[in-house]
């Protein structure tokens, strides 16, 4: 049973195993931008036995509230992404930037202070806002009209690239904050900031996962169908 899980990609497991994303976050596995990586290879890269992670996946309790978005229409998934993630991100950043500025102002002389975090969050906000506007104004309307491959392939490729940039920004955020771990004597503002950062990271990873591994993959699926059909047709006409 664990072998079947180990040979699947992180993206497939995140879609098919309810609660898998919680396990992946626990082990710091990138299931959004790195969703094409098999669990075996991803675990080996972080020095963890893949059997350990597979066992954790098998031990997950079923959660009836988790939806399998692979069977939803593009319109349904887009509506969910807009409400759950786009609106949420726009609410998150202003308060996080305010808290980060306050922590840097008061505790900037301490070696564990995340100096530069407020500026980094501001840059993340600008990049993410630009990204979301492109989706809302260009790509999402195309997908809602049923346009997939090849019409939407260009915009999808751009969004995938920008998702990788967002992933890099999360890595920088982790480096600035000791993997979002507050010092033992952190004040309430510092702790509130890091709770918000952990929520942002979780939300953004889930956001990217649903787009890369579900919405975009479904839109690109017809690109593989003509190839299969052409192969079958060629076999039919062979003498």
UniProtKB/TrEMBL annotation:
<feature type="domain" description="Hemerythrin-like">
    <location>
        <begin position="80"/>
        <end position="217"/>
    </location>
</feature>
<keyword id="KW-0963">Cytoplasm</keyword>
<dbReference type="Pfam" id="PF04405">
    <property type="entry name" value="ScdA_N"/>
</dbReference>
<dbReference type="GO" id="GO:0005737">
    <property type="term" value="C:cytoplasm"/>
</dbReference>
<dbReference type="Pfam" id="PF01814">
    <property type="entry name" value="Hemerythrin"/>
</dbReference>
<keyword id="KW-0479">Metal-binding</keyword>
<dbReference type="GO" id="GO:0046872">
    <property type="term" value="F:metal ion binding"/>
</dbReference>
<dbReference type="InterPro" id="IPR012312">
    <property type="entry name" value="Hemerythrin-like"/>
</dbReference>
<keyword id="KW-0408">Iron</keyword>
<dbReference type="InterPro" id="IPR019903">
    <property type="entry name" value="RIC_family"/>
</dbReference>
<protein>
    <submittedName>
        <fullName>Iron-sulfur cluster repair protein YtfE</fullName>
    </submittedName>
</protein>
